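Appendix B. Worked example

We walk through a single record from start to finish. Start with the input: the chain for 5-formyltetrahydrofolate cyclo-ligase, Sphingopyxis bauzanensis, length 197.
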Amino acid sequence: MTHLSADLAQQKRKLRERLRFRRKHFAANLDGMAQLAAFRALPAPLTELLADHSVVGAYVAWGDEPDILPMFADLAVAGALALPHHTARIDRMDFRRWRTGETLTKGPWSTQQPADDATAVAPDVIFCPLVGFDRQGGRIGQGGGHYDRYFAAHPSALRIGVGWSVQEIDATPRESTDMALDAILTEQEFILCGDRL
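Next comes the structure step. The output line below is what the pipeline stores for this chain.
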């Protein structure tokens, strides 16, 4: 008999492959106008939400992930934006403050991140990339568990997943360490999950 966690890990691997394929082809086939419009302005509910929080966590898009930094241009100028930072190829991730014009450096997984000497902060709201999601707040990430561990260590931070609409599935396989999202933002809609927002 196969162990349950091994089954879940296998399910997630298969889903990641399928969803990465979907994401890649969806992003590649977006026309120029759709690409320019996607994730450029915050929807009204988020504008109101972010006005009440001092530090917002975002990310630098990698590959086919939605580029959300243009939505946070004002926060980046004001010094209220933070981005994920990895010191090395370790389990620990933190967030470092980043302002428009500051250099981003290549992190241990070839992602762009703030410099090592940037100020560490704990965001009140975190927008995180995802590979797949469901409407109950389930999230499939890249598989390293960095966001889940960060969320578990900072449970009061609001968690908002960001992805393309084609990354939605009926239900994500969940383990006890998987932290549910409070909301999901796609190019088409803002989906509330749970009752924290």
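Two observations about the output. The radius of gyration is 16 Å. Residues 39 and 68 are 6 Å apart (CA to CA).
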